[in-house]
Design goal:
This protein has 2 helices and 4 strands. It has 76 residues and is mainly β. The chain has one domain: 2-Layer Sandwich (Alpha-Beta Plaits), CATH 3.30.70. The chain has a two-stranded antiparallel ribbon. A hairpin with a 5-residue loop joins strand 2 and strand 3 (40-44). The longest helix has 5 residues, at 18-22. The structure holds iron/sulfur cluster (2 copies). One iron/sulfur cluster (SF4) binds next to helix 1.
Length: 76
């Protein structure tokens, strides 16, 4: 099963929300905190739902997201 991890560079994020809209799994959300430029940056809010598709990183105009994807063993 493909899983993902997204690191957010909060100082690069401008809070445009494009990545939130692009995510098919509702993983990202606004953090409610503000960076040094006053932007409400996003956070990796629902990590267990991330499938590592990379859509969020592709749409970010500020290269604020780094996406990692990996295979996770199924435990049955
Ligand atoms: S990698 Fe895909 S599933 Fe994970 S946060 Fe980004 S858009 Fe959502
Ligand atoms: S697309 Fe990039 S700049 Fe816009 S909210 Fe997401 S991480 Fe921040």
């Amino acid at each position: 099963m493909l899983r993902g991890q997204v690191d957010v560079d909060s100082e690069r994020c401008k809070g445009c929300g494009l990545c939130i809209d692009a995510c098919p799994k509702d993983v990202l959300d606004f953090s409610g905190d503000f960076n040094s430029d006053g932007y409400n940056y996003v956070e990796f809010a629902n990590p267990e739902e991330c499938v590592g598709c990379g859509f969020c990183g592709m749409v970010c105009p500020d290269m604020a997201l780094t996406v990692y994807s990996f295979e996770e063993e199924e435990v049955s």
